[in-house]
Structure formats: structure tokens, C-alpha cells
Amino acid sequence: MGDERYRSSRCNGARWYLVLSCDDVPAAVVEPTGAVVGLDVGVASLVTTSNGDHYGNPRFLERSAERLADAQRDLSRKKWGSKRRKKAVARVAARSRAVARQRVDLANKTALELVRDHDLIAVEKLNIKSMVKRAAPKPDPDRPGAFLPNGQAAKTGLNTSILDAGWGVFFNVPRAKAESAGRTVVEVNARRTWVTRVASANQRSTSTACSRLVSFRCHRPPSATQPPTVRDAHAELSIVARKGSLR
Question: What is the rounded CA–CA span in Å between residue 119 and residue 25?
Fold first, then answer.
């Protein structure tokens, strides 16, 4: 377990948690596999690997949205300061925490499988906070005080899907598991990985046009005779190619 530095406790709803911080914790090193993998996150699939494997995105918030909305409507009808309102607040908080725990559980299970099977994992370096910002307003030059459509309605749905997928939660877990298992996780520049198609590690990359929407992951190769492929698979192949410059 290592040498304990300090301990703390915290309450989350009706649950108490004990947090221990330790030094010199022995690493549970696993046997080398010699495998390298690149990961590309998305909303259709939570993760797509360079091996062509897809890890599904269960959309926990979307599945729980109706129950959560019912609890919030019930809360809005309760009188401020009443005991019934306190109970309604606790129900809303409990359902929100359940969704958060589901995301953490999925991230841990997915990361554990990836860390066990690969010596080096390359992931995109994403600024998720900037990705889910509201679209900038577009003033109408012909009508002072009016604004042009800026696509915020469509972006709102995409932002919700990104947050529901829990990219930030997922990215944090592999690093911790890799450190204890003696594996390596590296970040690569995510710029234009979605548009670069890598034929092989020894061939020159070629760029093909495809949709810029993160939620649209269909990619059609240059040849009309070839069937459409998943765009994520091309993106993570680019990630694997780029990680070589970090060695």
C-alpha cells in the first residue's frame, strides 16, 4: 500500500468516502505485450482504436434524462425551506450522481482493458472546455442590434453529447492505470487527425475531404469503388503515426 502521507474524508449525498494519499506505492507491473494503439474519442462510439475496435457510448445522461426531468419538475413544485423540498433536492442529486458514477465505471473498465493489452497508448490532446463553448454571436451589419444565425442550436446538441460521453473522465483514467501498470500514455496534437488518412507506417499520408462535424463519423475513401469507412478509424491511425515523433 505504501507510506500514508495524509487522509481525508468527504460526504457526497448519503455516502462517505475516505481518501488516502500514499508514497512509495508498489507498481503492479504487467507483462509487456509490444503492442501500440492510438485512441480517438467520439460521440457515436466513446473510443475507436487503431486496431479497428469500437467501445460504445451508452449515453448515460440521455437514458436517464426522463427520470431526472421528473425529479426536477417535482422539485420545482416544492415550497422553499420545506422538508419535502429537501427530500426532492436529495432525489435530483442522487440521480445526477448515479449518471456520474456510470461514466466513471465505464471509463475504468475501458481503460483497464486498453492498458492490459498495450505497452504504449497515444491519445489526442483535446481542449474539451473550448470545444463545448457557446458559438460566438454574429451581429447583422444591416440591422443594428440584430444577429445572424450562428448555428448555436445545432452546437448545443453536440455539446451535450460530448459532455454526456465523458471525454474528460475517460482521459484521466488511462494515465493513472498506465502509471501503476508500467505502461506509457502520450498525448499527440489532435489538429486535423480527422482528415489525415494513413495507409501504412511507411507510406506517405494523403488528405481527403470529409465532414467537419464531430458527430458525423462516416468517411468515404477517394476511390468510388471502395465502401465508406468509419472516419474515427482513420483519425486514430493518424494518432499512431504522430506518436512516433514523441519517442
Answer: 21
**How many angstroms separate the CA atoms of 221 and 209, rounded?**
9
Contact 119, 36 (CB under 8 A): yes
Neighbours of 98 (CB within 10 A): 13
Q: Quote the CA–CA distance of 49 and 118 in Å, as a whole number.
A: 11
Please report which confidence band the pLDDT of residue 20 belongs to, taking 50, 70 and 90 as the band edges: confident
Pull the grid cell for residue 159. 455539446
Grouping H, G, I as helix, E, B as strand and the rest as coil, residue 88 is: helix
Secondary structure of residue 134 in the 3-state scheme = coil
Model confidence pLDDT, tens digit, residues 160-204: 888 898 898 898 898 888 888 888 888 887 776 654 444 433 344
In percent, the amount of the chain with pLDDT more than 70 equals: 77
Q: What is the residue whose three cell numbers read 426532492?
A: 88
Alpha helices by DSSP H, listed for 146-244, are: 152-165, 167-181, 231-243
Query: pTM of the predicted model, to two decimals?
Result: 0.70
SS3 57: coil
User: Are the CB atoms for 70 and 156 separated by under 8 Å?
Assistant: no
Residue where the block lists cell 503492442 = 35
Section 209-219 average pLDDT:
35
Find, among 103, 209, 211, the residue nearest to 162 by Cα: 103
